[in-house]
Amino acid sequence: MSKILLILQREYVSRVKKRSFLLTTFLTPLLFGGLYALAIYFAVKDSGDEYQIKVVDESGYVASRLEDKGVAKFEIVTEAVDSVKKNVEDGKDFGLLYIPKLDLDKPDGIMLYAMNTPGLQLEDDVDDAIEAALERAKMDRIGISQSTLDSLRTKVSIKSVSLSGKAATSGNSSIAGAVGTISGILIYMFMLVYGAQVMRGVMQEKTSKIVEILVSSVKPFQLMMGKILGVALVGLTQFVLWILLTGALLSLAPTLLGVDAHTATEAANHMSVAGASAGNAQAIEAFGKINNVISQINLPLIIGSFIYYFLTGYLFYAALFAMVGSAVDSEADTQQLMLPIMMPIIASFMMLGAVLKDPSGSLAFWLSMIPFSSPIIMMIRIPFDVPVWQLALSMALMILGFLGTTWVAGRVYRIGILMHGAKVNYKVIFKWLMSKQ
Amino acid sequence: MDILTVNNITKSYSNHLALSDVSLSIPQQSIFGLLGPNGAGKTTLIRIINQIINADGGTIEVNGERLNPNHIEIIGYLPEERGLYKKMQVGEHLLYFARLKGLKRAEAIKKIKYWFQKLDIPDWMNKKVEDLSKGMQQKVQFVGTVLHDPKLIILDEPFSGFDPINANIIKDEILELREKGSTIIFSTHRMESVEELCDHIALIDRSHKILDGPKKEIKNNYRSKTFIVNHVGDIGGLDGHYELLSSTSLEDDLQETRIRIKDETGSNLLLEHLIGQTKVVGFNEYIPSINDIFIQTVKEGSHE
């Protein structure tokens, strides 16, 4: 046991001291914080860019109904198209919107002239403005007034309430979905990144021939477990540091930018509902919802099970990665052996959407029971209130799962690390697995 | 007293037999040469002694005790295929090896300093392994093997990668380790170092042990009453007691002739017999070298 600790310690220290570890650990939160700060900065500071666009309307539908939209400010002119165009070319005006005589049902030939290529935002805004104007023209044609149209629309906001579990909680499933997705993706990333580190570490020990000296002092199984656990600890360290640093940066970001906290929160709230392109009332409502959901999300449960599935999922796959590393002589040989191991990870990642659609359906249930997919899938399901027995069963199966893969990997590893020059495929690996020492 | 006895060890891999009923006794405080052509099974035997793999049958005893995990601490092993962690510092690396062998930290550091002093490399402690040349890395590996004062040291091709000066330094260390009471199992293809260092040898060929015993005895057994005569002027003729094996001309008029005595006739009689015919310049018994014995026995084996 103390030998496993010695190996673990070496693996941990040598990895944590690496420049690449320090860089990713400290730069990632800085990046997050920076992006966040940037977003706040732009949300608070109105960009102020506006584009003055001259409008020549020959159709007669648009001019009277056109309204400014976003960055596009319109000015109706009666001059001839050519003279306005000339002004644009000379740089006196920014742009010219030309609307020819058109069929209201099939509007063709509308042009936006500008010396500088208009940005996507401007194009979108102009599009929207014209569409809105044409819509109003059509309404006038069939004689519907805006108030009639408004009276047809009914605003509905559904509150979903889950009746399973001890306490019924009401929540917004899209927020729960986001929490689930983020944890699922994080676990997926950790399993791949750190699993690959284990594999590379094992392979390096084998190809640089250190392993023969080591196994004359420790059992191959101790060597493998020491490495797997050491890397797990590195992953955990990185994760905890990310959370702490990101948290610290996020709380510092507004102060650093000289924006007072209140404005910043407001701006942030605004951003989180951006795209809804709605007025203040809607934003406030959405913000209320978010607050509501966050306060009702079982954060300790989510963090607890995240760490559980992160560790067990990692252990489950790291053993298999170690197995592959022990079997091959070079990085190039890993490709075909990796495929069957990567497949379930990638497949469960791709099932993410399907599971989100129906988090308590039978697909979600079975995928969250099978250890190959449960770390990712169960994390997606947890924010949607998973029955306790399902969670317990999945967790127990996860333990059985990693004990199983560790056993298999250990048997292959003890032979694989001493084999050089053999052409390895899964048939050979199976033979090693079955052979006596 | 034997430090290690190997009794009827058998080991087979899925497609071939690696060791078949091999028995050996390795006396304490000896340097034991383990010889054999490539693929004979030497490495398999060494791995079994190091408990890296298990034998299919047979037993191994260390100091009369069945081989068990406690013995790891008294064995030092330098494999033929050996490496170091490139990114680690030399001192750190040796400390790691020593602690895996069960040494306490403070004790290990003391031992490392002792060996650095002894090999005259005191400033290597904080050097990175990757900054060392191959020969320097070999030196570090040697230190790693003997750091925990092992009673049984197993060296597989210990001189490969060393220049003659460093090879000599290591050779002297090996001899000194034996003086201090350690036993060394020494596997190599360099017969001149076997000739020079080993007290005992064993020869393994195609999974079988075909020869073992004290080096002197083995060489005696391979004596064939053959004499090498250097002479000037032709040898006229030999009578029925003798057989002329070969004759070659050396520089000037000198010739070298090999003559075997076929019966119990003594060497003096042969010499007298020759003096009458030619001018004898040199007269020596031909004692086969380990190299010759190796080639001869392995070749004989392959004709069977």
Structural overview:
The complex is a heterodimer of chains A (437) and B (304). In chain A, a hairpin with a 6-residue loop joins strand 5 (160-162) and strand 6. With 437 residues, chain A is of the alpha/beta class. Chain A folds into two domains: 2-41 and 172-434, no CATH class; 51-146, D-Maltodextrin-Binding Protein, domain 2 (3-Layer(aba) Sandwich). The longest helix of chain A is centred in the middle third of the chain and has 38 residues, at 220-257. Chain A has 17 helices and six strands. Chain B is 33% helix and 30% strand. Chain B is elongated, with a radius of gyration of 24 Å. Chain B has helices at residues 42-49, 90-100, 105-118, 134-146, 164-179, 191-197, 215-221, 267-275, 290-303, and strands at 2-12, 17-27, 31-35, 57-62, 65-66, 75-78, 152-156, 183-187, 200-205, 208-214, 226-232, 242-249, 254-261, 279-285. Chain B folds into two domains: 2-219, P-loop containing nucleotide triphosphate hydrolases (Rossmann fold); 224-286. Chain B has 304 residues and is an alpha/beta fold. In chain B, strand 7, helix 5 (164-179) and strand 8 (183-187) form a beta-alpha-beta unit. Chain B has a six-stranded mixed beta sheet, with helices on both faces. Chain B has a four-stranded antiparallel beta sheet with strand order 2-1-4-5, covered by helices on one side. A four-stranded antiparallel beta sheet of chain B has the order 12-13-11-14, covered by helices on one side. Classes of the chains: A alpha/beta (437), B alpha/beta (304). At the A-B interface, helix 1 and helix 7 of A face strand 6 and helix 2 of B.
